[in-house]
Specification:
By secondary structure, the protein is mainly α. It has one domain. 69% of the residues lie in helices and 0% in strands. It has nine helices and no strands. α1 packs across α5, α6 packs antiparallel against α8 and α6 packs parallel to α9. It is globular and about 60 Å long.
Length: 251
């Protein structure tokens, strides 16, 4: 059932589009060109001291994983209202609806991320192949965290519709608290330690270390986040299942 729901979600993102799956590749490449022009030409942004690579490449390594993380949570949160008719008529494991929505969103963004990595040599940046295994583990940890938070968001959205407006704002705030557009060293001294409490920030640093510097072994933050993300996933799913029997009364 999960496979069928996942395929349905993947196909549903391109219903009515003539180009269909081509946009999975084209959209990230167009965004990469925009970021390269805006940050590299207009704002003349620079990478952290000591790194010899274009800012757009440094930005891209963290930007698309964040988009995957964000999109997975938002799509999971919207999954219950989108399947309200199915929930009211068919007895099924409702957590599969939220998980398939989060997985489809994450997979599509990661597919775009792959297109970006392939295009980075055009900016003079070669991805270190020896770091791919470590990067895959980091992405898996990021997905588990996103899916777990998505379970919480999906369950709460049924009872609190204001979450539709609140959640994107919270995620935008979290985006600017994560060193994606800037290096942690750019923060004022009294805020330097705060970014370390952001669980996603360390994962982004580990991705950059793996793909840009060829770090073979997973980063310390990724290893620490393996049990944390697993716990968030399990607790989020248990929370969702605890509230799922009451969904029909509110949808």
């Amino acid at each position: 059932m999960f496979r069928d729901l996942l395929l349905r979600d993947l196909r549903g993102r391109f219903v009515g589009s003539r180009s269909g799956w081509l946009w999975v590749v084209l959209t990230p490449l167009l965004l990469l060109a925009v970021y390269g022009f805006v940050f590299g030409v207009i704002f003349r942004a620079r990478v952290p001291a000591g790194l010899d690579l274009p800012f757009v490449a440094w930005l891209a390594i963290a930007m698309w994983p964040w988009l995957a993380f964000q999109d997975a949570i938002l799509r999971a949160a919207a999954s219950m209202p989108e399947h309200a008719n199915l929930i009211s008529k068919v007895p099924l494991a409702r957590d599969q609806l939220a998980l398939s929505a989060a997985t489809a969103a994450f997979v599509l963004q990661v597919a775009g991320f792959v297109a970006v990595l392939v295009a980075l040599p055009l900016f003079g940046v070669a991805i270190a192949p020896q770091g791919l295994a470590a990067a895959l583990l980091t992405l898996a940890v990021l997905f588990a965290l996103a899916a777990g938070l998505g379970f919480f968001a999906a369950a709460l959205r049924v009872f609190y519709r204001d979450l539709d407006q609140l959640l994107p704002t919270l995620l935008m705030f979290a985006f600017f608290l994560t060193p994606i557009l800037y290096a942690p060293e750019m923060l004022p001294d009294h805020l330097q330690s705060l970014w370390m409490f952001n669980p996603v920030a360390g994962l982004m640093n580990d991705l950059r270390a793996a793909l840009l510097h060829g770090q073979v072994l997973p980063g310390a933050h990724t290893l620490w986040m393996v049990p944390v993300s697993a716990l968030v996933f399990l607790v989020g799913r248990a929370f969702f299942r605890r509230l799922a029997p009451y969904f029909e009364d509110y949808l």
